[in-house]
Amino acid sequence: MSSTTPAAGRKLSWTTKFTYALLPLSFTMSTMVVTWQMIYYTQPLAIAIGVVTALLAVGKAIGGFITPVWGYISDRMYATSFGRRIGRRKGTLLIAAPLNLIFYVALWVPNMPVWYYLVVNVIYYAVYPGINTVVYSLPSEMTDDSKDRAALVAIQQIGGGVGGFAFSMFNTYLFKVWGADGWQPYFKVAMIYGVLGTVLLVIGALCIKERPYDETTDIAAADKGDAGKVGFFGRLVSVFWNFLSVLRIKTFRNYLGIYLAQQTFRMVRGTINGYFILFVLLLTPAEVSLSTGFSFLFGMVCVVVWATVISKLGGMRSYRLGAWVTIALFVGILILGLNVANLPKSTVTLVFTVLITLFTLGNSGIVNAQTYVQSFVPDVDELVTGKRREGQYAGIQSTLEVIINTVVTIIVGVILQAVGFQSGADVKTQSPLVVNVLLYMYCGTVIVLAFVGILLTYRMHLTEKTHDILVAESARLRNGGLMSEVSDETRKVVEDLAGIPYEQCWGNNNVINAMHKAA
């Protein structure tokens, strides 16, 4: 496997980093789904919002149960001849990409019965994690070097920013050419992004670097234990055991709280962003894309800024700084929303564009810091299990995204239906109650959960210094060092990050295999 190289002891080339950026750039496909799918179903297709939120929630929930399988498969792809020849991460991407395209297209077929949309949403949300679980795992998979990981995280955000900006600007043009009425414009835009996204995904997949097949990447050996082989039922049990048993690792539990806080407020904002701009600010779809496009463009600059800040302040201090900026800006958006009736439309457009663009500064800090810290969590897991399970943690994160998306979709739909939201209604005919609920839901959720995230960062002890100690200890044990020779400082750091006694680390536990007994 020419594309498979050891993660430790080698710097990544800029060519590798550039081609890695193509993977998050391909996420414009999913941006189309998150931004426009709900509006597409409720406006041009005029499906009742209660029905739409129910079918989307069911689709995401059922897909979420399948999501852990992708991380499990990705980690264990080396157990197959295909995986050893192609690569465990690359092989997973090349399987998932064509399936994702097929069911992405199916989402946008118009005028079908409700059961059709339910089925295709279930399958789409079951297939898509096969892509993002791999992409999320790559900063940890491709290198052990902290600076290279920080660069990959920044490149991941820049790739998403470039894609988002291009998506928004191109949408502005296409909506002007095709209009915003009827299903045809949404369908045609979705097809364009489906093809482009898949091409970028395949090119990026062919160029990624991976850890080689060795003792630490042979997860199948840990699954088998003394049994020699694992049957279908055993595999099924193992998928969910691996999904749940990671909660025993203290660092992951601390990270989980931080992730849930920021992901929830981002999902709430994303889910109702179109409704907020259409019904609260009374702007047009073209203006929605224009303001979003400016924020993404500014976001590329912010990523570079935050990469520098993170290198100076560390992950958690940077997270707190980004969260405070976010809180301040959403207080400003709340004030703007309360005064829309007293301001000319041009002023509302200008002020919102400025505020949402500046929000990118805070949001970029939060996301970059969280993603940066997340790339170190598998290193704690390696010291606990003696195996590299980047896919496991990426799969868990994908599952959490689905769960949060599902819960947010249900709650938003229930609330809007309860207050009298009218599907297919003109932007000026929604009731004042609906407008106020959208305003406070959009701003209040961000403000409250950003503050919660700030509080949770003080519990996170995985810093650059403790990470270096952790990686050095894993390397020592991997090279035949004895656990009995651990230093007092290293023992203290490991036990604090792992949350279990040092003697129960390095595979002397049942975190991977429920039947395994400590040595």
From TrEMBL:
This is MFS transporter. It holds the Pfam family MFS_2. InterPro entries: MFS_2 (IPR039672), MFS_trans_sf (IPR036259). Keywords: Membrane, Transmembrane, Transmembrane helix. It comes from Bifidobacterium amazonense. The chain crosses the membrane at residues 20-39, 45-70, 91-109, 115-138, 150-170, 190-208, 267-284, 290-309, 321-341, 347-366, 398-419, 439-458. It comes from the Bacteria. SUPFAM superfamilies: MFS general substrate transporter.
